[in-house]
Amino acid sequence: MKISIITACLNRASTIGAALNSVMSQVDADYELIVIDGQSTDGTMEIVNQYVDRIAKIVSEPDTGIYEAINKGIRLATGEVIGLVHSDDELTDQYVLRDITERMMQTDADLLYADGLLIDDKGHVVRRWRSGRYSKRRVRHGWLPRHTTCFIRRETYERLGLYDESYHIAADSDLLVRYLYEHDLRVTYLRRYISRSRMGGASTDRRMRKMVWKEDIRMYRSHQLPGVATRLMKVMRKLPQYIHL
Fold this sequence. Notes:
Radius of gyration: 17 Å
CATH topology: Spore Coat Polysaccharide Biosynthesis Protein SpsA, Chain A
Order of helices and strands: EHEHEHEEHEEHEHHEHH
Mean pLDDT: 94
Shape: globular
């Protein structure tokens, strides 16, 4: 089973190397790496081009945002399964893709999700996103897995649609609600940490919180769910992530 990893980036010279190396260090897994750059100006592409012989496809051109970039990557992907490693993310160890491959082959899942860590600028863990079990009822009450721990079959993207580029921040939540709530997919949970993400992305920036609320409410209502109530339940579900046991 071949996995396509998409890394979307824009002016991430300080982190892109670690993200790419976390993918290229994977063992016992068949994968391709696709980099979609929004025409960076800070040296990001100079770093990417150092690995040109190990990256299947590189695109560097202006785009409207991360979701257009991800959609470009999905359309270029040739793997049976597609995962995302953003430019400020890393896979936690060299066996992540091996374990994902084994589980998806064992279960014939359409979508796999796992657990993720969120770290600060010094690399300290500040949140532990333990996803837990999936059910449509839980999605209806604000539950979603961490987006970057989701690995989805390319056929599922082709059948159910890609990311809605009208959203600036909430297209990942929209896609997961659409897939996990409105459709009947084969879903499996890999109970282990597979990604490490730096805090400070678009949806974690305090300046963007107002937009997050607005887009999430719009998103939930588009799926015939109560916007404000479901958004509040989503926030409440994240509180245990800050408790380190």
